[in-house]
Amino acid sequence: MSKKYNVYGIGNALVDIVTEVDDQFLQEHNIEKGLMTLVDEEHQTRVSNAINLNNSNMQCGGSAANSIIAVSQFGGSSYYSCKVANDELGSFYKKDLKDNGVDSNLDETLEAGITGKCLVMTTKDASRTMNTFLGITSNYSRTEIKEGALKDAQYLYIEGYLVTSENGQDAMKHAKKLAEANGVKTALTFSDPSMVKYFKEPMESIIGASVDLLFCNEEEAMLYTGKDNITEAREELKKAAKKFVITQGENGAMIFDGDTFIDIEPYNVKAIDTNGAGDLFAGAFLYGITNGHSFADSGKLASLASSKVVTQFGPRLEWHQAKEILNQLNNV
Fold first, then answer.
1. Number of domains comprising the chain
2. How far from the centroid of its chain's Cα atoms is residue 219's Cα?
3. Element of type H or E holding 120
4. Predicted confidence (pLDDT) per residue in 78-102, tens digit
């Protein structure tokens, strides 16, 4: 029986405001470079006011949202469970998801509050620094999870950032349990090294016996397994995930398909903004494996897609770029 959705995602709903700054700006505002930092509304407003928002690019985002939109752009079907408020940014978010062909739970009445936003500050060296004010998405809970849509998906995709709150952890466990009970495969992304570093125990309890598919980078793999080299870390990861993808930045990626390791070659490009590269890799890979492609071919697609996105600002491809990437691979 075919499923309605390739991927059902859960994660934070944040309006991404992508802008370019210099190192001095980060120092002046006491912002730690290269990390995702949760901030309060006052800090977010102060920094926003210092940035020229007219020159910034605004999109509906959040790590898993970027991946779920990528599935749709490549021609897959996806659903996103998230939480926004009934404010201007909430309406913007809802419309942007819909315009990107993604079904969601946002057709219900939205609560009063403030929609979360993420200032993505990129510097000339292609480093990205994120200051995130979660707003209403910090109350994300199992209420947002729609059982009918989840059961009708091939994969559940869980965003690691949800681990920062108890209600988020509960939602992650609840969704995973529902998926497992209904024959839906489970995929998880660690999202950020800080999620593994500071929330290791809750992350372990969410993974439980294992997940079907795990996405991480080298640093996260080593932090999670407690190993100081990637060879040992990837062996240890087999205990946490049946299959996994370790992204390696400019060195490509390594994939464990349940039997063997597959090295995915990088595409050499000049990176100007690494924001969203990992999200896009996961989305393209999930599209591939749910649409008849092998792990190796899905890895190639994901590598090409993420190499394309780092050459431009913002965490997403344009629709025509996704189609061009598919054509390029099909003609090889």
1. 1
2. 16
3. strand 116-122
4. 999 999 999 989 999 999 999 999 9
